[in-house]
Amino acid sequence: MTGQRSGTGRPGGRCARTLVRWVQFNAVGAAGMVVQLGTLALLNRWMAGHYLLATALAIEVTLVHNFIWHMRYTWRDRVAEGGVWGQMVRFQLSNGAVSMAGNLALMPVFVSVVGLPVVVANGMAILCCSVVNFCLGDGWVFAGGAKKWSWRRRSEPLAQSAPEGWRVRG
Predict the structure, then answer these.
(1) What is d(CA 42, CA 37) in angstroms, rounded to the nearest whole number?
(2) Residue 70 and which of 1, 20, 31, 89 are 20 to 30 A apart at CA?
(3) The pTM is what?
């Protein structure tokens, strides 16, 4: 069974696949960090003195960005029960909660106690949350079977790709 989930079929394959996924996760995370820090810098200018609110809004923008990229790149080979919306809910409940709580708890420490600039402090907070977020993403959010994600199968008519309760019966 070792390596089976990774698709390599050989011992050590799962470890190698996890390492590759960790690199992919960090590539998405680096892009997300640019999105979050850029959004925070803009919001912090517009909402001077309200860096925690600006941080929360920047995190939410980044969560949507990261979810889309993780779904299409990092964990593109996995589709969990509940499909895309189920994964989005789990992503918000796990990575979202860790990112929001971690960033909002660490920002006052880094800004007020340590004296770091807001954007630098936020970068530090992001890094502190990344390992926990990877574990949650790999073990829960995107822990479905090894099926490739798609909005619908190309051979499947659009009407059949709709959720069961939304299908038109004819």
Answers:
(1) 9
(2) 1
(3) 0.71
